[in-house]
Specification:
The protein has a single domain, classed as Four Helix Bundle (Hemerythrin (Met), subunit A) (Up-down Bundle), CATH 1.20.120.450. It is 54% helix and 0% strand. The mean pLDDT is 89. The chain is mostly helical.
Length: 159
């Protein structure tokens, strides 16, 4: 998927379009990634761990924080530094990621950009909950940053 049209001016269409663009960009960067479970950096970070992080990030921000859904293991990627656990395959991880992205789209479709996050997740009083527009922009920023990380990781893996 290419970037959204340069003629768009509607903030919702821009946010939704760029989120989908970067969701797909992450998968394109991972397609054919040599050994996504192997780290080439001192921290031990892996490309597979990045995809897991992004799946849980989608779940945390849209399902748990915004929609107030009770989700199992909202911080699941933080328990083991995002590493794959026994029996978890890259294909299963990709399926989990795609399911989280689709659920996020469903939640966003039913809400207005000015709606505020629930008080169920991280924004319990006295914290002020952000708007959906803020959350979408924050998630987009996270995707852009991590797409750059994958560029570097791929270059290291292929050298």
């Amino acid at each position: 998927m290419s970037e959204p049209s340069k003629q768009l001016s509607d903030p919702r269409q821009l946010l939704e379009g760029y989120l989908d663009h970067y969701r797909e960009e992450i998968l394109r960067k991972l397609d054919g990634f040599p050994e996504p479970e192997v780290s080439r950096v001192p921290s031990g970070w892996t490309a597979a761990a990045m995809l897991k992080h992004l799946a849980f990030m989608e779940r945390r921000w849209f399902q748990w924080d915004f929609a107030g859904e009770q989700v199992p293991d909202a911080n699941g990627d933080r328990d083991q530094d995002g590493a794959l656990v026994a029996g978890e395959s890259p294909a299963e991880l990709k399926g989990f990621y795609l399911a989280q992205c689709e659920r996020s789209r469903q939640i966003v479709a039913k809400a207005s950009l000015s709606d505020v996050a629930s008080r169920i997740g991280r924004f319990q009083p006295p914290k002020e909950p952000p708007t959906l527009a803020w959350i979408m922009f924050h998630v987009l920023e996270e995707y852009m940053r991590h797409a750059g990380h994958l560029d570097i990781a791929r270059e290291l893996a292929e050298s």
